[in-house]
Design a protein that fits this description.
The complex is a heterodimer.
Chain A lengths: L1 H4 L5 E10 L2 E11 L4 E5 L6 H9 L6 E6 L2 E2 L10 E4 L11 H11 L4 H15 L14 H13 L5 E5 L7 H18 L3 E5 L2 H7 L2 E6 L2 E6 L1 H6 L4 H6 L6 E10 L2 E8 L2 E8 L12 E8 L4 E2 L1 H4 L8 E13 L3 E8 L2 E8 L9 E7 L4 E3 L8
Parallel strand pairs in A: 3-8, 3-9, 6-7, 7-8
Antiparallel strand pairs in A: 1-2, 1-4, 4-5, 9-10, 11-12, 11-14, 12-13, 14-20, 15-19, 16-17, 16-19, 17-18
Helix pairs in contact in A: 3-4, 3-5, 4-5
Chain B lengths: L3 H33 L18 H8 L1 H32 L6 H7 L2 H4 L2 H11 L6 H8 L16 H25 L4 H9 L4 H29 L3 H6 L11 H11 L3 H30 L5
Helix pairs in contact in B: 1-13, 2-13, 3-8, 3-10, 6-8, 8-10, 9-10, 10-13, 12-13
Classes of the chains: A alpha+beta, B mainly alpha.
The complex binds adenosine-5'-diphosphate and magnesium ion.
The site of adenosine-5'-diphosphate (ADP) has 10 residues of chain A, from helix 2.
Chain lengths: 380, 297
């Protein structure tokens, strides 16, 4: 992501702070974004995503720090002067205007001539497949159609930066997936630079070229979806990103020669033993033993052993586990195993011949294991 | 679809309300209409009543004094309701901003409206008093006038002075309705418009005003009906004078009924006043309907 670090960043936020009275809602935010990037701000409700977006748009004044858009200091500029467009969760379509006038409103305000305006509106209407709706009022549109109109209003001015605040939250599950694809398609065809806020980590994973994970007004991690998914910087990110989320089990690690011996307590008897032949926790010296949080995603705990038996004993190791609960979920079957003080979820194939209460060999894939400090939650 | 039984039940349930409605509006209305076509007089002894067709209406409409009174009433209505609308919306917009003491000010602003019309009229008569009125004193001390004037004793100014008093009393009602409507304007709409580049004035005209137009129309219609049949405030302040300069249409209704005791003719004046109000309301409705079509959804 070198491009984002240079002068031509489309958006550069430096040391941004936002306080409401005594409450520090955004703490020391630093984000740099390259042109054409699809940057997704994700985090639990109330973590400050909307506030950050509002600060970028200029609708909210910031307490300190700077915001550069397309190389220009926009910290104190009015929203209208920042060369941005925004799509709201509520769509914020003007109810007293036709779809056509809604889309063309920004051009109308900027006194673009009638012919030019008509041409541009027709262009985005074509892109969004809403030509047939141009003469309707927002009240006469479905949720998905309103969503398209809201995007049309943003696209028509060809701004430098697009801001989306949870644009799909008001749609039903099925439509949300369709519109998600639609947004991705528009990003690919227009090459627009987009900052997109969501609390839905699946939306973040599927849309983003880079993800910013936030919690309590602090940026936890910035990275590609793969980086965030495979190398979460702390237990919060590990837990928040991915569904079902990463299994965070408390256990001990001992560095013994070329491997690290992991012991994860089980309620029914001897601890589960695994051997990590990878680098292991960085801070763990030879011969040392430490208690820590061991993170394994559900797809790293499978029934591969049941079917092929092809364990190599290094990255893929088999161990018998007692299945607590078995939940068929169509494409997969999830099995809950009591491990390291948590209900660890294993992702088995849909046709796995298993039932609750059985002891079955589970294949552990240690190639993508994560370790976290118990106290701080930071990646080790 | 309602069944036969349910249909009958519906009418049984509605009957009491319809009966009351008929008793208090339909019957008096029909009675007034009937009276307006007769030469009925108010008297102690029963007198013969004759149906005289449109004679009362012809008399009223060909009376140049009544025509003048109608125009005067129209002037009073348009100017006072217009000012109340502008002032009411402006004050509502102010009261919708966030500032210290907003709640207190919101409570205070309703006071003029809470004062009885008679009290308001007497108070303004004192304010306008030619010898010790506050208006004279204020304008004199500010150097705007060099001599005390008789504001409601002068036919040139009397009507506008009455209008001022009426606006002062009634704009809070408009302000309150507008304020209530303003509070329902979604914040996102103004934000979206701001990002699209609309300044405060454009945002107000394109977003806010259309959004509140519906409720605003209701209160304006209400005020128009009231203003067109204005009587009490004028009766107390000027009694229709000086030189008939504040004599509105309702004065003719009053005069015909209670001075000349001609209830037939009085009824025809009343019907005319009501009819013109109706025209004004239809006009309002068609104007605002175009603005709000599909709005506030
Ligand atoms: N105008 C405001 N005044 C005071 N606190 C606010 C205001 N707006 C947002 N907050 C607070 O800032 C925090 C972040 O809010 P928000 O950005 O809306 O979260 P998110 O969009 O991530 O759900 C919340 O705790 C919220 O209560
Ligand atoms: Mg939000």
């Amino acid at each position: 992501m070198n491009a984002a670090m240079t002068q031509d960043a489309i958006l550069k936020i430096s040391s941004l702070q936002k306080r409401y009275g005594e409450v520090n809602v955004l703490k020391d935010i630093d984000i740099s974004m390259a042109p054409g990037e699809f940057l997704v701000l994700v985090g639990p409700s109330g973590c400050g995503k909307s506030t950050l977006l509002s600060c970028i748009s200029g609708l909210t004044d910031i307490s300190s720090g700077t915001i550069h858009i397309a190389g220009r200091d926009r910290t104190n500029d009015e929203p209208a002067d920042r060369d941005i467009a925004m799509v709201f969760q509520s769509y914020a379509l003007f109810p007293n205007m036709s779809v056509e006038r809604n889309i063309g409103f920004g051009l109308e305000v900027r006194k673009v001539n009638e012919a030019e305006k008509k041409r541009k509106v027709a262009e985005v209407a074509d892109l969004l497949k809403i030509e047939h709706l141009l003469h309707r009022r927002p009240a006469e549109l479905s949720g998905g159609q309103r969503q398209r109109v809201a995007m049309g209003r943003a696209l028509v001015r060809e701004p430098k930066l697009f801001l989306f605040d949870e644009p799909l939250s008001n749609l039903d599950a099925k439509l949300r997936v369709t519109m998600r694809t639609e947004i991705k398609r528009i990003h690919q065809t227009t090459g627009a630079s987009i900052v997109y806020v969501t609390h839905d980590q699946i939306e973040a994973m599927t849309l983003a070229s880079r993800i910013v994970v936030m919690k309590d007004g602090v940026v936890q991690q910035i990275g590609t979806p793969q980086e965030i998914y495979n190398k979460p910087v702390n237990a919060f990110v590990a837990d928040f990103m991915g569904a079902p989320s990463m299994n965070l089990m408390t256990g001990t690690a001992t560095r013994e020669g070329e491997h690290v011996r992991l012991q994860i307590p089980t309620p029914e008897g001897p601890p589960l033993e695994l051997f990590d032949y990878g680098p292991g926790p960085e801070t763990l010296a030879a011969g040392d033993t430490a208690e820590l949080t061991i993170g394994l995603r559900p797809e790293a705990m499978t029934d591969l052993g049941l079917r092929s038996g092809g364990m190599d004993g290094r990255t893929l190791q088999s161990a018998d586990c007692l299945l607590d609960v078995v939940e068929p979920a169509g494409a997969d079957t999830y099995a809950v195993v009591q491990l390291g003080g948590t209900e660890a979820v294993a992702r088995l194939s849909a046709d796995a011949p298993v039932a609750a209460g059985q002891r079955v060999p589970i294949a552990f894939d240690l190639s993508k294991i994560s370790y976290f400090d118990i106290a701080s939650g930071n990646r080790l | 679809m309602l069944g036969r039984r349910q249909k009958r039940e519906k009418w049984i349930l509605l009957a009491p309300a319809l009966a009351v409605l008929a008793l208090i509006t339909l019957i008096p209305l029909a009675n007034t209409l009937w009276l307006s076509f007769t030469d009925t007089r108010i008297s102690a002894l029963p007198e013969p009543v004759h149906f005289i067709g449109l004679e009362n209406y012809v008399y009223a409409l060909t009376d140049p004094d009544f025509q003048e009174a109608l125009f005067r009433t129209l002037y009073f209505t348009i100017v006072s309701v217009g000012l109340e609308g502008v002032l009411g919306v402006a004050v509502a917009v102010l009261l919708n901003q966030e500032f210290r003491g907003r709640t207190l000010l919101r409570a205070l602003i309703i006071l003029p409206w809470a004062v009885p019309t008679i009290v308001n009229a007497v108070a303004w008569r004192l304010i306008y008093h030619p010898d010790y009125g506050a208006l004279n004193s204020l304008l004199f001390q500010l150097g705007i006038i060099s001599d005390y004037r008789s504001w409601i004793g002068d036919p040139a100014t009397a009507m506008n002075m009455v209008i001022l008093a009426d606006v002062w009393k009634n704009f809070p009602l408009v302000a309150y309705v507008a304020l209530a409507a303003l509070q329902t304007v979604p914040e996102d709409l103004s934000k979206a418009a701001a990002i699209e580049g609309a300044g405060p004035w454009k945002r107000f005209c394109s977003i806010t005003l259309p959004w509140i137009a519906g409720p605003l129309m209701v209160v304006m219609v209400l005020r128009t009906i009231e203003a067109f049949r204005v009587f009490d405030i004028i009766y107390v302040m000027t009694g229709g004078g000086p030189a008939d300069s504040t004599k509105t249409a309702s004065f003719y209704v009053y005069q015909e009924y209670f001075n000349y005791l001609r209830s037939g003719s009085g009824a025809s004046y009343a019907v005319l006043v009501a009819g013109i109000s109706a025209v004004l309301i239809v006009f309002y409705y068609s104007v605002t309907k175009r603005q709000t079509a599909g709005g506030a959804a």
